[in-house]
Amino acid sequence: MEVKNKIGFLNSGIGQKVTMALTGLFLCIFLIVHLTGNFQLFHHDSGLAFNEYAVFMTTFPPIKFVSYGLYAMILYHAFKGLHLAYKNTKARPVKYQVEKASANSPWTSRYMGVLGTIILVFICTHMSNFWWEYHNGPIPLTKYETSLVNGTMTASTYVGEIAGKKLEYNNADNTLHTVIIKDLYVVVAEAFHNIGLVILYVLAMAALGFHLVHGFQSSFQTVGFNHVRYTKVIQAIGIYVFGIAIPIAFAAMPIYFYLLSIHLI
Fold it and tell me: Residue 112: enclosing H or E segment and its boundaries?
């Protein structure tokens, strides 16, 4: 009986909103983790730090397990959000004639479905360009050789094959450390030579920012965490951290590589 009640709650309108809120908050945590990892792109080490991060994220078993759960959660959150937006539209087919919608709710709330659709298209593009390519495409190999005497490092294209995504060893007299690794960094850098792709990413990050401005605060309200003492703090975090800082940081990456490609930085 208890199991049936729980299933009934999850299938109810309130239950679906709660699961949307919880998955949304979890995805906010993921954004912070993903951003931290992607900051490795800015290291001046010919991509070594980012490539090692990519290997870790795709080979460490606990991370792989969480990642596949995360992918499922992203799809659930996206399609359930679109479903709820559709249901809300069907429930009120005739628009209010006296009161304007803008007087009742912010536009970020009214257009959550549209913003979510833009973000879903972006995610599919992003996964195709990098995740799928990294696992299945012809990713080049790069050899990084670091002197254990003075710390200098050189990077060069490696022609050959290795087992797995990374090979690491020291030479016989322990004076040189060598890493041969799949070079996702160069794939990212070359992808953002395309101004069209850069514009798509920037627009998607703008959509993400507007989506999170409403979604972050709304999620806390949905799960019952809505006290006058904390509301302003939650609003500030939603606006300034998730609505502005995080989308700008993500958008900075494609812009950075595009400016590099045209030699402006």
Answer: helix 112-126
